[in-house]
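dumping this here before i forget
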Amino acid sequence: MTDGFALFDTAIGLCGVAWNAQGLTGVMLPLSEGGDPRARMARRHPGMEEGEPPPAVADAIAGMQALLRGEKRDLLEVTLADGAIAPLAAQVYAIARAIPPGQTLTYGDIARRLGDVSLSRAVGQALGANPWPIVVPCHRILAAGGRKGGFSAPGGADTKLRMLEIEGALAPDTLPLFGGR
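structure:
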């Protein structure tokens, strides 16, 4: 599989995906304030050129599009090139990937699953650096008490809430929690 990136349309706007021989190296959510998505992908993934995605990446794109149309897709079949991810972040991402569409956990829930509630801030930092939004569904992680919390992707918390709405989650104060609290 040759390294590259591609842009693709979704229900929330134009997204991007980058890949190498190991799997996806990154996913880009839509830009909220203009800008050139190709230039952003080229900056984030130096040396990669836009191209036709190989079959595994095309399948990942189709899965992300389906999820963002409201289909209950977990995207666990998508392979990530995660060799450079810190061990704690890898654990956080694994927990996030296990949250079913339309359900949520809090940062504290994930920290408790890691064995130390004091890791809540580190969980937030790992999710803020998530290179694979949508596939690693950081939008399904809320602040304490089910508050929407932050979202480092373009569009911020509005994008997060839109993605949760598409997945069938309820209003922020009544979002279902997956095994949490």
